[in-house]
Amino acid sequence: MRNTLRRLPLADGISFAIPATILALALGSNWSPSVRSVAGPLRWVGLLVVCVLALALAFERGRPVRAIGWTGAAAAAFVAVAFASALWSVDPRLTAARAVSFVVLLVAAAALSLAAAADRALGRRVLAAVLAGAVLVALAGIGVYLVRHGRAVQPATTQNPVRFRGIGQNPNTIAMLLAVALPLSALLGLEARTRARRLTAAAAFLLLWGSIVASGSRGALLAGFAAIVFLGVAWARDLRTRVAIVAGAAALLAIGAGITKIPSPLSPNDPQAHKSASAYAAPYNAHDAERFWRLEDDVGRPPGGAYRPAQKRTLFGGSGRLDAWRAGIDQADARPLLGYGFGTEDHVFVDRLYDFEGGTAENSFVGLFMQLGGFGLALFLVLVACLLAAGWRAVRAAPDRGLAAACFAVLVVGLALAVVQSYVYSVGNTATMSIWICAFLPVALTADA
User: Fold this and answer.
1) DSSP strand pairing (163-164 vs 153-154)
2) How far apart are CA 164 and CA 172, in angstroms?
3) Which helix (H) or strand (E) holds 162?
4) What is the DSSP letter of 371?
5) I need a labelling partner for 113 at 20 to 30 A (CA). Which of 11, 349, 421, 435 fits?
6) Which residues pair with 317 in a beta bridge?
7) Is the model's pLDDT at 306 over the cut of 60?
């Protein structure tokens, strides 16, 4: 069996399947319902193909399963609770389906870790495939902007200026993926030994960074800054290089933050002004009370329905997320131990906040508290701790320091984004697959076989 697998181009297959699946995931959250109807099923097919190829690679050249160690045990415990939550879920079928997709992703990530532990070149190919997928998504967004400008941008509102969204449903979805890939492009540039490689790395980095800035996604901009900082700390071997990388990251953050302040939100007196798309998406009905007092703007609304400008957006606040986190925690307190069921956050969370627009609490930790209660959240934190420990151990001891440093930086990005987005358990999210694959990749590198 192993000899048969060795004759198959499995590594080439994974190099193609990962970027293709990343693109399908991005298109699965596209602004066009017709595109989503096609890309939606394809992303699950792509995920399954990635999992099958990863398992084949692990069987053909990987280390024993026990090399995953405590990280694998923590992941198994978490998904066991996720599956069990179907017994008390508000939507058992949805919980079971989302638990299955999450298990497929974790199995693929663990299998790639086992395979890469025995083949360092394979680990580099996996990172290159993730970067290629992000670059494809960014290029597709620019292509749409050139052909159909109005579709590639989100119109300005009284709260937000015009924002680039590319092929994503909103500006944040694609920006998350690009922030994840940012340290991978930076590593390519730091390790480049030829002029062509340096130019390629610089072009990829500027494409990703520029798209993030154009999206106006503050979470992705800050996460990208954290990615470069942690990459520098983990990759560089001397203090001077680390300081130079951190200074460069700080300069990019300052420039990006300055650029995002150039476009302005609409004035309340502007005839085009609207606070959110939901305010005008439905046909007008004179008897619709939502037109005059929207329930989703009930909490925090000025007395008598008088107009109050939305909070001013800054780099670290102004989106109403703190209120949403409190609201999510308050709702989770009704089921504090085991939650409402895995994957049900968007079905349970209710937005009644004047200064917030969203269908989830926009915080993965609050989201997990709602879904699996304090018990499930504690298991997830144990899994994160195992991944961080394995990643840092690989940075210090693995033969490929660059690979380990890039994966550690991606994990840090993922955790930073988890503070401002509900996504780490949502496999259909554009960035989720990339983060879990990179986070698991170093786990088996230094484990005892």
Assistant:
1) antiparallel
2) 9
3) none
4) H
5) 421
6) 314
7) no
Segment 241-278, tens digit of pLDDT: 889 988 988 998 889 888 887 776 666 555 555 444 44
pLDDT (tens digit, 9 = 90+) per residue, 386-433?
999 999 999 988 788 889 999 999 999 999 999 988 899 999 999 999
Amino acid residing at 316:
F
Spatial separation of the C-alpha atoms in residues 182 and 207, rounded to whole Å: 10
Percentage of the chain beyond pLDDT 90 is 49
pTM of the entire structure? 0.87
For the chain, what is the domain count? 1
325-362 per-residue burial string, b: 16 or more CB within 10 A, e: under 16: bebbbebbeebeebbbbbbbbebbbebebbbbbbebbb
Residue 245 lies in a domain: no
CA 175 remoteness from chain centre: 8
Q: What are phi and psi of 154, to 5 degrees?
A: -95, 125
Distance CA 58, CA 114 (A): 6
Is 346 inside any structural domain? Answer: no
Q: Note whether residue 207 is domain-resident.
A: yes
pLDDT band at 340 (very low <50, low <70, confident <90, very high): very high
**If you write DSSP's letter for every residue of 259-321 in order, what string do you get?**
HHTSS-PPPTTSTT--S-GGGTSSPP-TT-GGGTS-GGG-BTPPGGG---PPPPPBTTB-SSH
Distances (CA, A) of 294 to 248, 269, 352, 361: 45, 20, 9, 19
In-domain check, residue 144: yes
146 close to 35: Cβ distance less than 8 angstroms: no
